[in-house]
Specification:
Blueprint: H1 4-24, H2 40-48, H3 50-66, H4 73-78, H5 80-104, H6 112-137, H7 141-155, H8 157-170, H9 176-186, H10 189-203, H11 207-210, H12 214-229
Helix pairs in contact: 1-3, 2-3, 3-5, 5-6, 6-7, 6-9, 7-10, 8-9
């Protein structure tokens, strides 16, 4: 049976992802000239490079929405075809949004430091998603699951970034552009560390398999003694 903590973590991740994805749908109204709750710095980026910025901002929510369902063991086991189809939608969304994010990064409202951070996460997003797709095609499913965890760590940076924005205002920053100098890194580095730790923990064999118990040693020793005395 799945660990209860992991179950609740997945549920929390999915809830946050769906909420942020739905909130991000406001970018679909921008081409019509409707700017709903969009920061002035982000608006400046969109006005400077509208195509790549809006492709990223309108496609990335689809990756956020479909991603959590890829990690449900029951879905993979009972509905493998659905898992494959939603996985393709997720991967395609990541690749399209990732390329657009990489093209947008040099124009980040926080300047070159923020641009480098967003460029790095976009590159890692593309690489991890592509490797996840390739390993699935080669039926290397253990490697596929690991790569897709890291892919979603990058996707989920859209959530962690928004969760950290209130902390930036509490710390004294007056705009998203000002705090994006560090948000460009803190939005994804913790996610990567969590996934790395979870991957290490899940691949670690049980402790009982690492060291034999003292009782088994005594039992095997007593058997050896009785066999030699006979």
């Amino acid at each position: 049976m799945e660990n209860r903590g992991i179950h609740w973590a997945r549920l929390g991740m999915a809830t946050l992802a769906v909420g942020v994805a739905l909130y991000s749908l406001r970018f679909w109204a921008v081409p019509a000239g409707v700017w709903i709750a969009i920061d002035s710095g982000i608006r400046g980026v969109i006005e400077k490079v509208p195509f790549q910025a809006l492709v990223h901002m309108t496609v990335a929510p689809l990756a956020l929405l479909t991603g959590p369902f890829q990690f449900l063991p029951g879905l993979r086991a009972r509905h493998p075809r659905l898992h494959r189809y939603t996985g393709r939608i997720y991967a395609a969304s990541c690749l399209i949004a990732g390329v657009a994010a990489l093209a947008t990064a040099p124009f980040a409202s926080g300047g070159p430091v923020a641009g480098w951070g967003f460029g790095i996460v976009a590159t890692l997003w593309l690489v991890s998603t592509a490797m996840g797709w390739i390993t699935a095609l080669r039926r290397r499913f253990a490697a596929h699951r690991i790569w897709m965890r890291f892919s979603y760590a990058m996707t989920f940076s859209g959530v962690t970034l928004r969760l950290q924005i209130p902390l930036g205002f509490l710390a004294g920053y007056h705009s998203y552009s000002a705090m994006s100098v560090w948000l460009a890194y803190t939005s994804w580095i913790p996610n990567v560390l969590i996934v790395a730790l979870y991957t290490w923990w899940s691949r670690k064999p049980p402790r009982s398999h690492l060291t034999p118990s003292i009782f088994s040693i005594r039992w095997s020793g007593s058997r050896h003694t009785s066999a030699t005395s006979a």
